[in-house]
Amino acid sequence: MSSSWPIRWSDLTQGIGCEMCGSDRPDVDTYGVRIFRSSNVDAVLQRANIQRGYTVVIWRGRHITEPFELDYSESSEYWGAVMRVAETLMNYYKPLKMNYETLGNSVPHLHTHLIPRYVVDPAPGRPFPLRPQDDSEAPIPEDELWDQARALRAAM
User: Fold this and answer.
1) Cα–Cα 20 to 30 A to 144, which of 3, 34, 41, 44?
2) What is the C-alpha separation between 63 and 86, in angstroms, rounded?
């Protein structure tokens, strides 16, 4: 099996052509529904039916690849938002555990995957088998997605 880093990796790490930097921060997009927004952070409840409550928290300030590139106030805003969203997901979905994945291997822009883990789980006791989305994932029914998004927004 042959693999390689994404095409234009060097450009992407500098923010050139970065889809997360280029976003106009809509409330709804092909990935999901925004449930949280601050001046530099969004949290998007994912549309793909990968795991109930799967949410991505995205840094929307200047282009950042690694968390250590944030200054103190940016770091406080970002990680504070990650914790606030994670706590809200825990209280709403009642999982056994929350996983936090800050990877950036396919999209080198600071973002954290929040993945609730349940009794019925694809990999109990191990990392969640998360793969880059390729549009083949079944979506959460639209009414369920919106019901969850509204409840999570209200809880925050």
Assistant:
1) 41
2) 23
% helix / strand / coil in the chain, to the nearest 5?
Answer: 30, 20, 50
Is there a contact between 64 and 109 (Cβ–Cβ < 8 Å)? yes
Say if pTM beats, i.e. exceeds, 0.90.
yes
Alpha helices in 1-156 (DSSP H): 9-13, 72-93, 142-155
Instruction: Write out the H or E segment, with its range, that includes residue 136.
Output: none
pLDDT given at position 155: 97
CA proximity to 130, closest of 155, 106, 97, 95: 106
Biggest CA-to-CA distance, the chain: 46
Cβ atoms of 102 and 112 closer than 8 Å: yes
